[in-house]
Predict the 3D structure of the following.
Amino acid sequence: DDELQTDGNRSGHFRNGELGLAPTNEEVIRIIAAQLAEIGDQFDKEIQGRVVNDLVQHFLNENLSKEEITQHMSRVVRELTQSIPSDMEQEKAMLVLAMVLTKKIVNTVPSLLHRVFSTTLNYMNQQLHNYIVEMVSA
C-alpha cells in the first residue's frame, strides 16, 4: 500500500486517513524534492557497488529481523555520511543516502522492493522523523 515517491510528487495514500504532517504548500514540497533529487544524483555516482551488494545480501537473508536490517542500513548510512562534504547538514545527507541506497538495491534486486521500502521507511521514522517534519514545515 505504500508508495515510493522519488520525483517530488506526493503519494495519494495515507494510513488511517492520517497525513502525519501539517498541510503544506505543494510548491515548497516540490522544491525540496528537487533539491534532494539533485543531491541524490551526486551521491548515486559515489556509492560503490560493493556497498549496495552487501546491503542486498542482508535483505536477502531471511533469518535477519527487520530491526537487524534497519540497524545495518543505519550503520552503512552513517559510514557513507563520513565521506560527505561537511558543508551539508548531516540529517539531509542521511536522508538522501537512505533514499539512494533504496533505489540502488531495488534496481539490483526488484523482488526486494517491499522489504527494502519498509526498512527504509522504518529507518527514516526512527532516525530522521523530526528532521523531515522540520524541513517540510520550515
Notes: The mean pLDDT is 80. DSSP finds six helices and no strands in the chain.
